């Protein structure tokens, strides 16, 4: 009986151990990112996506995105320990040793890059590496601590996934792929600033110059509202260039109007918890927008 209990205890410890490593890869964020990669792949071709670049591309890009997230955990581990949103992450809690986290992130990066380079194409491998470095080094290690425009400038790295999907199946740049990047690039500031309003005290406590900390909540609300207007225009670009049709036009317009309305409410008629509601809606907005893009492409 005692032996059985010890086996169960070891199994539970091992399961919890691997869950900590998985948590460092930010699986929910990576899943949303991979949706945009998939849409980029599908929109790049008139027919079905070939199986090899589909599987190898999704796996390699996913691994390198997970590595970038793990690097973010490593670089931010000291401030994470002081913030209510992040104090329970694996590194501040000591669930994963720092040395192990470094090796884990490095292995994910190397395996992902090699897979993309050999099984997809070198262009996608190098672009994905640039995106990883842009997020983990340029944004997390420098911009996040240097300027309140951190998420605007650094957002380009997080906006790259649909272009990576596009290059994975075509091995070339295309303007249509860049339009998808513009949409996510424009979506990122209102998405993140809404969270920053909700967590303003946390960022102030650790001296991170997020916009609500440096310029105030009201100014940030105005920026969110203006960016949703800009995002609404960006979402029309696929229709204007003939990349998407009527189904996407209807769906994207409805989603844009809902986002604008929520940002307007946040600015002029805020109720408790509304900033977090805007943040959550923005995630559904991007997810549904890319699903509509995909549906329009095949219908």
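Q: What amino acid sequence fits the structure above?
A:
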């Amino acid at each position: 009986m005692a032996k059985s209990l010890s086996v169960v205890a070891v199994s539970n410890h091992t399961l919890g151990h691997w869950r900590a490593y998985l948590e460092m890869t930010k699986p929910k964020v990576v899943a949303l990112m991979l949706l945009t990669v998939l849409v980029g792949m599908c929109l790049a071709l008139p027919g079905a996506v070939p199986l090899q670049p589909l599987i190898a591309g999704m796996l390699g890009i996913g691994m390198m995105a997970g590595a970038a997230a793990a690097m973010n955990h490593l670089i931010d581990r000291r401030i994470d320990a002081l913030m209510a949103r992040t104090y329970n992450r694996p590194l501040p809690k000591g669930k994963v040793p720092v040395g192990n986290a470094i090796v884990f992130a490095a292995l994910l990066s190397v395996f992902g890059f090699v897979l993309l380079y050999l099984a997809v194409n070198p262009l996608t491998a190098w672009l994905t590496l640039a995106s990883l470095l842009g997020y983990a080094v340029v944004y997390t290690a420098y911009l996040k601590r240097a300027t309140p425009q951190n998420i605007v400038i650094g957002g380009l790295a997080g906006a790259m996934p649909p272009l990576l999907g596009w290059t994975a199946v075509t091995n070339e740049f295309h303007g249509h792929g860049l339009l998808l990047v513009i949409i996510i690039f424009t979506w990122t500031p209102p998405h993140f600033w809404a969270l920053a309003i909700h967590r303003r005290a946390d960022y102030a406590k650790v001296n991170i110059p997020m916009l609500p900390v440096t310029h105030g909540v009201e100014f940030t609300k105005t920026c969110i509202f203006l960016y949703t207007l800009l995002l609404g225009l960006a979402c029309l670009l696929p229709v204007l260039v003939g990349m998407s049709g009527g189904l996407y036009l209807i769906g994207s317009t409805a989603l844009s109007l809902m986002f604008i309305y929520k940002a307007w409410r946040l600015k002029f008629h805020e109720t408790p918890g509304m900033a977090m509601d805007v943040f959550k809606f923005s995630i559904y907005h991007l997810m549904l927008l890319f699903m509509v893009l995909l549906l329009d492409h095949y219908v």
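Q: And what stands out in the fold?
A: The chain has a mean pLDDT of 92.
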